[in-house]
Write a structure and sequence with these properties.
single chain; Rossmann fold; 46% helix
Length: 246
Amino acid sequence: MILRDKVAIVTGAGQGIGRGIALKLAEKGAHVVASDIHAQTARRTAREVEILGCRALAVKADVSCRSDVEQMVATTLTEFSKIDILVNNAGIARSATLLKLTDEAWDEVLDVNLKGIFYTTQAVATHMIDAQYGRIVNISSIYGRTGTIGDSNYVASKAGIVGFTKSAARELARHNINVNAVLPGIVDTPLLQGIPDKYLQPMIKEIPLRRVGTPEDIGNVAAFLVSDEASYITGATIEVTGGWRM
């Protein structure tokens, strides 16, 4: 129970990687604020956290809306009086080739995936600075390093997360706040299930470990990065890809 009595906010915690991270943090002893734009899925994750023996709070929040983020932080402080951990996981994709990409699709993805991390980090860091302690993990993507076809808005947001992580790590280090990024590869989430098998199988064959990742794989790395065992790691970008696109 290396995170016993720590308080963690996980955005996008209703399903997929966010849910996997929330449950892994709870397994390690952390109380979890499960934040999601969908209240029902946030409540479901919160119930699963409670089954693991930790306190949980479900919060409906759109991270691209500053007032939602501020309310999420205020609610967390009212319930738990502190915030030790922030995992910025909420993200969306609006796929289109470059010449067909609309202003609306560009703005929507950047607002959630990148501006959302700015809002949440800014709101939470104020309280972490007061406590002189904090651990922040930002979920990027291996595509933020390699690029891909048909998702330039998504890739731009994920590459931006890497740069933001390194800058935030430099600014916050003197306050004992560590900021790191995780770059998942192909992970078994609802998003993956929408990919036709004829496209998915060739991708899996390119993975040296010959399997897709699981939300628990990402949760394991996030749990390590927010633990005291990782106290000398900040500004890092860790690929969790099974070797894909290394």
